[in-house]
Write a structure and sequence with these properties.
heterodimer, A: alpha+beta, B: alpha+beta, 5-stranded antiparallel sheet, 4-stranded antiparallel sheet
Chain lengths: ~425, ~475
Amino acid sequence: MSAVRQQALSVVAPVTLGHEQALDAWLRANKRALQIALSHSSTTHFARWVLLPPTLDEEGRTIGERHLLAFETNFDGELDTHIADLRAALGSLLDGAFDGVEGYPGGDDLAGLSKFFRQSSLRAAAFFIAHGGLSVPVVHGDAALKKVVEQRLSELSSGSKVQAEDPLGLALELQRAAFATATQQGLTLGPVDRGLNENPTGVLARAFARPFSVILAFLLAPFFEWRDERKRAQQPSFETPELRAQRDSIGLEEDRVDQNGLTHLVALKPGRYRPFALKMMVYLVTALADAGALTGRLGGIQTIHFARWVALPDRRLLFFSNYDGSWEAYLGEFVDKASLGLTMIWTNTIWYPKTRLLLFRGAKDEEAFKAWTRANQVPTQVWYSAYPTLSVGDVLRNAKIRELLGCKLDQPTAERLLALI
Amino acid sequence: MERADVQGLMLFAYKQHPRSRFYLLKFSGGQPREWLRRALTDVTSGEDDKGGRYRFNVAFSARGLSALGLDEQDLGTFQREFVQGMAHPERSNVLGDRYSDDPEHWQWGNETEPVDAVALLYARSDEELLERAAELEKALDKFGIARRVQDVALPPDGREHFGFADGLAQPFIRGSGRKRNPGDAKLATGELVLGYPNAYGLVNSVPSAKQRRGTREHPSPVPGTDRVSFGHNGTYLVLRQLRQDVAGFWRYCWEAAVAEQAPDPDERAKLIAARMIGRWPNGVALVEAPDAERPPVAGLNDFGFRERDPDGLRCPFGAHIRRANPRDMFGDDAKEGLHDANLHRLVRRGRAYGPKLAGSMPRVDDGVERGLYFLALNANLRRQFEFVQQTWINSCKFAGLSAERDPLVGKEAYDFDDQPVPRLFTVQARPVRQRYEGVPKVVQVRGGEYFFLPALRALNFLCDGSD
């Protein structure tokens, strides 16, 4: 079986003026229905609908006349297959979920839909996957196998009797249960090709393929950082009633399950240097993220399933992330483990904590960085996860269990298998 | 640290004053400022560490500060969590206060029983406590301040109601002038006291308030503004009333021991309980003594998890003391792990309420409510108290676990279909882990609120100004 590649779809399209409130209300009212419908899609890992309101630039001017609807997914395989799969899963909900979105042709017209999705989709500036190569059916299958094995173990262990059994015998017993279920439900046992044969050094080497432009971005940094700070107007207060209300509504939606989705939107700093620097930094970060994908860690963080930046044509930078656990823990890891990578990108946007040479300080200013992130978060109307109770660690561990269950067990592999359960 | 300006509770647990009474105050209809003026001289500072029959401290909720004249702009300079209050639905989400712990069931701290301030009175004996309490209560009556009263104490044997030595892991605060016990984490002053560099070497934002006229000494002005640095030398105080079902806890452990056909169910029950907690009743950590309780040899806080117990075979990964403070267990090395864990520490000043349930490992309840008044101090509610609660205690993904929460204080959870999520506890072992199912919820939240513990100069400030 060849590897299934994960891709990102980021459809961003304007909503007809005056229609945004109705769409917002419809999405909120049909949130659960959309989530349930999406659970019938076999290609969707994560998805969200989010209305992007006009925001302010550094001079206080409004960017964007109309709201934009962003519909984004992390999906398996080819885009056309994914679109057909989405259409089948969402059925009649599709029309409601894009009602008032300009250019949306209606769900009946598959070819038109496909064209609309392609034309209004933006390329990810930088894209991170923690468990690349594991398709939705494989993630679900692995979780089902783990459950079967746990149940069997629970049957076998009344009290501490299991301790006395020999590991190999026990592991074989669990393997038999897994085989039975795998056969019955058509689940994969043993390794799957994840297509992760690239070596990290090769990936890093690619980062230096455009050394001149990247070095230029750094060389120019001190001047533009000096200039931007001189020009920088008084930072607006993040403590306005509107922003507080927005944070309240985001906060109330968070931490319902073991994962969270984050949508963040912020304008680039003025001038021509920032788009260029952003492009170069994205280039560097992508290389780092690719290297990280091999270990399931992004800059030392192992709680991010999928994350990406998308540059909007109107000089705004969009960030989507699907992460495990709490916002505070996630942001804390940004500060403690991944501040370099984030600062490189976000330093090019407005009101970001003061940065030196595109890399230093920035996210290290813990309180300011967290306040800045929160202030630029956008409430997400609908957020979907195909496996809301699984952490990145769970997905990767379940995959290892499946691999071991598929091999011929001996004493050492049996012990390794048991230690993973 | 300006010890004369901070309230004494910041630096001292008042162990010489084990008997105490906590007053949850309600200002409405009363004259809180007049009362505070009267009480001001009794407030214990960080310098009063010797002698004296009493200790007295006072802290305010956002409501209380507002009643004492702080306006919306002033309150906007405090942490959002504090302004929202502990019973706010967003805080409930974060803290896991849902279902049976939902604020709607609380006795205080919720919408129906809001609290404006907490006054903490400590004495050496019950007689002295009663004597001083009578005076204090007379003053409260005089100024029309309603209250809810709870007697709390430091148990003479240092053991909380379940029977375990408690309060052993306390961080050492730089600049506090206190003695550091072996193993105590060294924290930057700003992790406890506002206005000083924190663990990141940065100063947390300090709440401020509009200047007032007055004859007393106020906090210093914020340069270039008409405001004073109200929060300087102050901190946030977390108070939660946690009921403990002591009999339920021991009954579960004993039944689990019987189900395992343990030859000595009592000994086995003690081991199961110790594994859930991570320490033996006498405080010795399981990392030091994984199989049986034995007398302490070194400092009870002087151990790490990483080297001694990388696989959780001595002290289970899900044990309460790992979740409350993972020490050096995370990160790429011990140093990094310890550094990261220490970004989320609390100074704990909790005390027990209710009589001890008689007997050792008692399995029959007497119907009397007992528990802990959990009290913690920290400079950043979100990064310290709430983080511990949300990311360690209540996370079902803690330390690579996948489906369980703190066996002692973990929240109640329901799945998408509104079915209760089973409460589990896993004991790592070879060849394979052991799992306890049906772990009862033995700790219940009965009330709670976020308070601000102002410096003495900030208390002066609150006393001044017109009503």
